[in-house]
Amino acid sequence: MPYITVGKENSGDIDLYYEDHGVGAPVVLIHGYPLDGRSWEKQEAALLDAGFRVIAYDRRGFGRSSQPSVGYDYDTFAADLDVLLSRLDLQDVTLAGFSMGTGEVTRYLGTYGSGRVNKAVLLAPVPPFLLKTADNSEGLDHSLFEGFMAAATADRPAFMTGFLEAFYNYDVYGGNLVSEERFRASWNTATSASATAAVACIDTWLTDFRGDLPKLDVPVLVLQGDQDRILPPVFTGNRLPGLIDDMSHIVIEGGPHAIIWTHANQVNAALLDFLK
């Protein structure tokens, strides 16, 4: 199993697990909270069939990557991504982020530029800025996120059950688009993540990406569901036009947060059309 080392904590290396399959133009997939790179399985299959090289990795703290107690902020996440792209010497890359992974895409391009990147995809995006402040009246109260962090700290498995129910709109799609087995597999992945990461990453959702977005100088596809209960479009994607220069915005009717699973056919069609 391939790993790259992105840092150290005390005596131990911090390693990221990744998978690298196929040939052709590279697409790097960056997963959402609280899952791992395997959550892209339906997109990976479609991309490989279409002749792309697909690289998916597990963020620090999640999946098969190391679980350090440090580095849970978007500057570090973007630096980890930069190490991956550099070590694999990837060029003309499409960066595709889902949910929390859209923050890596945005911060990476805002910090490191587009020298290695030719396109970007933001699925169920976090940007531009979720927190309500004096200059961001369209944001959400900090108390909401404090509540999430308190719940994840008090009983992480129970928190993950509730989070994933909203993630999949399980009351609507459970038993049809989302099997009990799929839900259970996601819960197992979520609860096997670092307890530190599970709490610390919630605070990263309040990162202000407004300074990064104008620096995105490649074509960008924004894709999300209109029934997203985790990151509703009114707080996220609907605010991105005008902040990104070259942007296409597709909203999937009935789509929950987890469109990469529940509405994979529509996501894959839009993704492949954008890439080709």
UniProtKB/TrEMBL annotation:
Keyword Oxidoreductase annotated: yes
This protein's record includes keyword Oxidoreductase: yes
UniProt-listed InterPro entries: AB_hydrolase, AB_hydrolase_1, AB_hydrolase_fold, Epox_hydrolase-like
Domain AB hydrolase-1: 26-264
Domain of life, per lineage: Bacteria
Keywords, in A-Z order: Oxidoreductase, Peroxidase
Annotated signal peptide: none
Protein name: Bromoperoxidase
Organism of this sequence: Kribbella ginsengisoli
